[in-house]
Specification:
about 400 residues
Length: about 400
């Protein structure tokens, strides 16, 4: 069936394999990954909202009851950090934590960050122009979201260099079958990052500010307050999402534009129009989504089309395939920066819809806008990029550019 997430050629271009997957049915068993692959937009969208599936099963079953082996005890720091965050929590805990985080991370919070996001984007692009080019990934795509999240959390500037390595090491565990070395790095990063954030939280308890951590400390309702672990896990999740998704969306988006020069020229005409830039960003997210797959456990027996899937199985919701499904998108393999009807699933759906989606859009609009602004020379690709090894979080190793 062509689906091989460990094959470099597949990772470089999974879309032909997705086309094959969509033909035979709505759910296909993959022996290599031990999962049911779900490639169609309608099914992925529906299952993201179906409470018979869960990011975890531990709110209802023990590992033994669910037929799964408990992770090794030495991996516990990673699993505590990950399992207490919004990405993996299920209701009622998810609803309580999300409600309290939302009291601090409001639309107004994002709106107030916009000037800082735009300033940071201009500064990073300015340095890249002064250098005559370089790696767009490390010069603009990576530092922008990390700096924005650091600003949001109130991380002192001197400490910001710690964040990217921690995030990268933790995110290694989201790939299929991470090896023991990957797990060891993730555990170490989980411990170090958690310890750092606990110190920052203690400082904010003494001296509150206008940052998100201070807001989360203050947030409360009839259900109580966020625990310290819930705050730590929320901060890490925000950084990880910003570091991986936004970084890869930026680099993948520019690589798509270099391969579609007519669309790049069209995008240049949008540079002073945030609304049109936002529409274009959504299309770039659809065309080559940075998160290719989202996994869910089957908590109660389900049926997808003619296929019965029992409790205890795992489904792989293929975002990359769903976003190219011809049953939902006209000319799905075409990059169309003015696509009006664009219900892409790159930010997820249902209760786990990305809390930081509005901020991610602002960052992407700011970085593309800054690189296309009047007075900035035209960006040119130096050489064809290579893809990283990961499939779930799919991105480039570098994107070498010049002016």
């Amino acid at each position: 069936m062509g689906f091989d997430p460990w094959d470099a050629a597949f990772v470089a271009d999974p879309y032909p394999a997705y086309r094959e997957l969509r033909e035979p049915g709505r759910a296909l068993w993959c022996e290599a990954t031990g999962q049911w692959l779900v490639p169609h937009h309608a099914d992925v969208s529906t299952l993201l909202r179906d409470r018979r599936l869960g990011r975890t099963y531990l709110h209802r079953f023990t590992h033994e009851e669910f037929g799964q082996q408990a992770p090794p005890p030495e991996h516990e720091p990673f699993h505590v950090l990950n399992g207490t965050g919004l990405l993996d929590l299920e209701d009622p805990a998810h609803a309580r934590v999300r409600r309290l985080v939302a009291k601090a991370f409001t639309p107004r919070t994002v709106e107030q960050l916009v000037p800082a996001v735009e300033r940071l984007a201009r500064e990073l692009v300015g340095r890249l122009v002064s250098d005559g080019g370089g790696d767009l990934l490390t010069a603009v795509a990576e530092p922008l979201p990390v700096a924005v999240i650091a600003e949001l959390l109130g991380v002192p500037e001197a400490d910001r260099g710690l964040l990217r390595p921690w995030s990268a090491d933790i995110c290694g565990m989201y790939e299929l079958r991470p090896d023991e070395e990957t797990a060891r790095r993730a555990v170490r990063a989980s411990v170090e990052f958690s310890d750092y954030l606990r110190e920052l939280i203690a400082e904010r308890r003494k001296r509150p500010g206008g940052d998100l951590i201070s807001g989360m400390i203050a947030a409360h309702d009839e259900g109580g307050r966020l625990s310290e672990q819930e705050m730590v896990s929320t901060c890490v999740l925000l950084l990880n999402a910003g570091h991986e998704a936004t970084v890869n969306a930026t680099a993948n988006g520019w690589w798509a534009l270099f391969r579609h020069p007519a669309q790049l020229e069209l995008l240049r005409t949008f540079r002073a129009d945030p609304e049109k830039l936002s529409t274009a960003v959504d299309e770039l997210l659809r065309y080559d989504t940075p998160l290719q797959m989202f996994e869910r456990w089957v908590l109660d027996d389900i049926r997808i089309g003619d296929t019965a899937i029992p409790r205890g199985a795992e489904v792989a919701l293929l975002f990359g395939s769903a976003n190219r499904d011809p049953a939902r998108f006209a000319a799905p393999d075409a990059l169309d920066l003015v696509r009006a009807d664009n219900p892409h699933l790159s930010f997820g759906a249902g209760i786990h819809y990305c809390l930081g989606a509005p901020l991610a859009r602002q960052e992407l609009v700011a970085s593309f806008g800054a690189l296309l602004a009047d007075g900035v020379p035209r960006l040119r690709l130096v050489r064809e990029p290579q893809w990283q090894g990961g499939f779930v979080m799919r991105g480039l190793r570098e994107l070498a550019v010049e002016f």
